[in-house]
């Protein structure tokens, strides 16, 4: 694998640069574990120094050179040393040699692995650090004996001393993208980051281990890793070196922790000697972590566990796992997760005999959204004789693992084991969920309604009605959905899970109708009752997030979306391979990034959602629609059209309630392709449909899309009694009094300002959007003002252009029809001339650089001034900053 591109470490690199080039001129030494990236950081920093100002010498100390006097400096000192000098004299001679070679430039001595320097070399480094025109920088490895002259560098205040921490999550994702030459989905990046513990060397080896296997795949330009790992020999050797030779007692500690972590210290010392635990901790093999009132023991690095578990013989592995289960059972389960841990140990050791324990453990794993583990436990429970309970749970889990046909087979195998009505209602709802959402069989709704009428048990009926309600909402039968859901809430016999599922239906319906406050209240009530429904219906969380995400998106609440995609559910979904949850949250991330004008982040998030949901029947069409929106924002008409074709192919009829998002994306794709007439017609048709469905929340956004396309004064809706029709602006004004939140009145103001042709009001609206963090609509409102002022040749166009430039500076590549209309295109040559003129170059200098005559340059400038509506160079720079990118790059 080739040397990878340097990414991240911005703060550390800046600190290194300041330590060398700053006024103080102090050096710096970075300390960190092996492979953390110290050497690469040091090399990156010193390589950037200009050779005409700095004389840079690189020293790579090693165990080989440590045995020789001045062995560490063999790369920079002459081979022949003067004879007869005292040790102090040799040091002075060496400093003089380096001063002569520097020839007046400032000396920079970079010492990699300074802990391996021989004593004379260490003394020379210390002496050189005291020189007026020299700076010393270097690296040290954690846990190594440091020569006293090197340690004295920072104790004497000659250099700074800094700990190099592991890579952050963002830096890990960046490094992965550099290694794989393409972005990695968030869940895969997180898993690889946790395994490598932020160590770049280990991360590189991990990628090397999975590359070329079926476990690492690229979809829609996004790399995804399944999480299964075959350790490469180089990686195993690297970890073996770190672990080293172990005594039998210490090996027992490491193996028990590898199979049982986190393991309570008290529990561990029941199986091994305390002294062996202390030795393992001293050697950096295990670490102690405070957890509530318990002290847990963990391996010092996640990969230690991978190597130890792989190298452990099967018979000993099973014995250790059974022993761990016996230990925990012996002291009694004190924490909720103890049942799950015992079940896994029993299963893996071949000693699991209690199907009820396996069912309970599978339920816990599913409640944590760990789909692979839950599947394994539930299947084991079914094989062990778990009966209906195991089958129902396994089928539900398989549904959310995108294996609906298999789930249906599991349920049908226990169709005759339904027993009482309570069990029958569970079987009907599980089967209905699989057939409706998993297999898109719309007849399921009618069938489940019919079967529900045959039940006499009120709690069983309520469960059926709650599922029927959300199915009817998703197939756009809103009145029936509301009636059914309200009926469940009014029924005292309904279980907590049934009631809260019904409340989710109402919350979603309130959101699309624009009753955002009522929707928020309903979602909060559902979350408050989570302890009562989590074990019964953990998947209800998806309904919660869909209702909440819809409300946040319709209200333009970017802060709320940020909070949602960063909460515990997001972490659990990513870690547990709960793809529906991960995919939907990625769609919300893309939506928020798009409104912020961050088209690159929007497209990456949307592509990640498409990759994660590639086999889904639920949100795949929505993911492709958001990809189309992000591509359209960037002006990528081809990708937008491709994404819409995929959205139409993948969108499930069982999720018809999502149609507003898809149809808005279709209009955006048409506009990106230059078909503005088609886009406008598409939006007018969508507005009519939304009005008929009562989806006022969505209607405000669709109407605003018409405003963005210059249709604020266009007629919309049915003909009134006097023969007139409302304009888009008038309809938005009406909705602003019906739909909750800060956004609808702002959208109405935008429409009114556009219809009235008021630049001042458009700029005021831009300020309103900016206050909400909505950089894209803010830029479009400002662009509308600039366009009007330019048409009127108003002297205020310069100030408006500067405001537009600031807003575009908050965005990256954004190419919407509004922005294109406000920023006339320049030819390639005009663009070059304009950029040079804005940078202060004279006409003669421009002519020389572009191989033109001075007269041609002046002619170009006059055309540029005319196109941009400016009077000279003084206004040119601000005008250029308001122009979206030329050939895909920003003019800023």
UniProtKB/TrEMBL annotation:
Please give the name of this protein: LuxR family transcriptional regulator
Pfam families listed in its UniProt record: AAA_16 (PF13191), GerE (PF00196)
CDD domains according to UniProt: LuxR_C_like (cd06170)
- Give the UniProt keywords, A-Z: ATP-binding, Nucleotide-binding
What is a biological process (GO) this protein takes part in?
A: regulation of DNA-templated transcription
Where in this chain does the record put each HTH luxR-type domain?
Answer: 819-884
Q: Which organism is it from?
A: Micromonospora craterilacus
One Gene Ontology cellular component annotation held by this UniProt entry: cytoplasm
Cross-referenced InterPro entries: AAA_16, P-loop_NTPase, Sig_transdc_resp-reg_C-effctor, Tscrpt_reg_LuxR_C, WH-like_DNA-bd_sf
Molecular-function annotations in GO: adenylate cyclase activity; ATP binding; DNA binding
């Amino acid at each position: 694998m080739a040397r990878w591109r340097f990414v991240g470490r911005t703060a550390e690199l800046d600190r290194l640069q300041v330590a060398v080039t700053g006024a103080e001129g102090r050096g710096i030494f970075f300390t960190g574990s092996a492979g953390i990236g110290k050497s690469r950081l040091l090399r990156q920093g010193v390589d950037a120094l200009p050779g005409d100002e700095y004389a840079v010498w690189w020293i790579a100390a090693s165990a080989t050179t440590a045995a020789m006097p001045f062995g560490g400096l063999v790369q920079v000192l002459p081979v022949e040393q003067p004879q007869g000098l005292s040790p102090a004299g040799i040091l002075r001679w060496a400093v003089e040699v380096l001063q002569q070679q520097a020839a007046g430039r400032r000396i920079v001595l970079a010492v990699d692995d300074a802990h391996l320097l021989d004593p004379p070399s260490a003394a020379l480094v210390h002496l050189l650090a005291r020189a007026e025109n020299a700076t010393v920088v270097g690296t040290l490895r954690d846990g190594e004996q440091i020569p006293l002259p090197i340690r004295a560098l920072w104790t004497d205040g000659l250099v700074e001393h800094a700990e190099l921490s592991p890579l952050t999550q963002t830096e890990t994702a960046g490094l992965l993208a550099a290694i794989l030459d393409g972005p990695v989905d968030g869940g895969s990046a997180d898993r690889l980051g946790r395994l490598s513990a932020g160590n770049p060397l280990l991360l590189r080896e991990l990628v090397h281990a999975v590359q070329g296997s079926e476990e690492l795949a690229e979809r829609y330009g996004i790399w995804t890793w399944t999480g299964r790992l075959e350790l490469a020999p180089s990686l195993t050797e690297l970890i073996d070196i770190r672990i080293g030779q172990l005594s039998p007692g210490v090996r027992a500690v490491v193996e028990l922790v590898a199979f049982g972590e986190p393991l309570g210290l008290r529990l561990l010392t029941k199986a091994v000697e305390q002294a062996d635990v202390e030795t393992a901790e001293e050697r950096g093999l295990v670490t102690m972590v405070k957890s509530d009132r318990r002290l847990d023991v963990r391996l010092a690095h996640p990969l230690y566990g991978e190597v130890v578990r792989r190298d452990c013989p099967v018979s000993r592995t099973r014995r250790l796992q059974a022993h761990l289960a016996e230990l925990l059972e012996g002291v009694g389960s004190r924490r909720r997760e103890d049942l799950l841990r015992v079940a896994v140990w029993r299963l893996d050791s071949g000693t699991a005999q209690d199907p009820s324990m396996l069912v309970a453990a599978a339920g816990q794993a599913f409640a944590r959204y760990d789909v692979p583990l839950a599947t394994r436990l539930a299947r084991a429970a079914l094989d062990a004789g778990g009966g209906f309970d195991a089958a129902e749970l396994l089928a539900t889990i398989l549904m959310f693992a995108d294996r609906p046909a298999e789930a249906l087979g599991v349920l049908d195998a226990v169709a005759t084991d339904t027993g009482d009505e309570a069990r029958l209602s569970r079987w009907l709802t599980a089967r209905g969920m699989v057939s409706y959402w998993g297999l898109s069989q719309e007849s399921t709704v009618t069938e489940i309604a019919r079967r529900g009428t045959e039940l006499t048990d009120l709690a069983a009926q309520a469960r059926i009605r709650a599922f029927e309600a959300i199915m009817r909402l998703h197939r756009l039968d809103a009145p029936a959905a509301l009636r059914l859901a309200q009926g469940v809430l009014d029924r005292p016999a309904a279980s907590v899970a049934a009631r809260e599922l019904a409340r989710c239906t109402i919350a979603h319906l309130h959101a699309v109708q624009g009753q955002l406050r009522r929707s928020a209240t309903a979602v909060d009530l559902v979350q408050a009752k989570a302890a009562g429904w989590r074990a019964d219906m953990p998947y209800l969380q998806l309904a919660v997030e869909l209702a909440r995400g819809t409300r946040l998106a319709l209200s333009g609440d970017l802060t709320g979306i940020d909070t949602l995609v960063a909460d515990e559910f997001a972490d659990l979904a990513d870690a547990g391979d709960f793809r529906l949850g991960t995919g939907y949250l990625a769609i919300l991330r893309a939506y928020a990034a798009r409104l912020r004008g961050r088209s690159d982040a929007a497209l990456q998030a949307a592509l990640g959602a498409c990759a994660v949901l590639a086999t889904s029947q639920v949100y795949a069409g929505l993911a492709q629609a958001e990809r189309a929106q992000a591509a359209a924002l960037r002006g990528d008409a081809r990708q937008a059209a491709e994404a819409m074709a995929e959205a139409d192919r993948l969108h499930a009829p069982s999720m018809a309630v999502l149609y507003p998002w898809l149809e808005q994306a279709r209009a955006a794709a048409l506009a990106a392709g230059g078909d503005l007439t088609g886009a406008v017609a598409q939006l007018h048709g969508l507005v009519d449909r939304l009005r008929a469905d009562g989806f006022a929340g969505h209607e405000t956004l669709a109407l605003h899309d018409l405003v963005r396309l210059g249709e604020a004064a266009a007629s919309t809706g049915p003909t009134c009694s006097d023969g007139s029709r409302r304009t888009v602006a008038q309809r938005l004004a009406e909705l602003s009094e019906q739909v909750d939140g800060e956004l609808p009145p702002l959208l109405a103001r935008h429409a009114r300002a556009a219809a009235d042709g008021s630049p001042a009001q458009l700029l005021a609206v831009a300020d309103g959007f900016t206050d909400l963090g909505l950089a894209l609509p803010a830029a479009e409102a400002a662009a509308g003002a600039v366009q009007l002022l330019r048409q009127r040749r108003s002297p205020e166009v310069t100030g408006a252009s500067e405001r537009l430039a600031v807003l575009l500076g908050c965005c990256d590549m954004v190419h919407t029809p509004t922005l294109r209309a406000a920023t006339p295109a320049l030819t390639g040559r005009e663009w070059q001339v304009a950029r040079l003129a804005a940078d202060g170059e004279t006409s003669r200098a421009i002519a020389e650089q572009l191989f033109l005559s001075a007269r041609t340059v002046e002619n170009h400038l006059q055309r540029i001034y005319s196109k941009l509506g400016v009077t000279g160079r003084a206004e040119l720079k601000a005008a250029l900053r308001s122009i979206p990118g030329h050939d895909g790059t920003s003019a800023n």
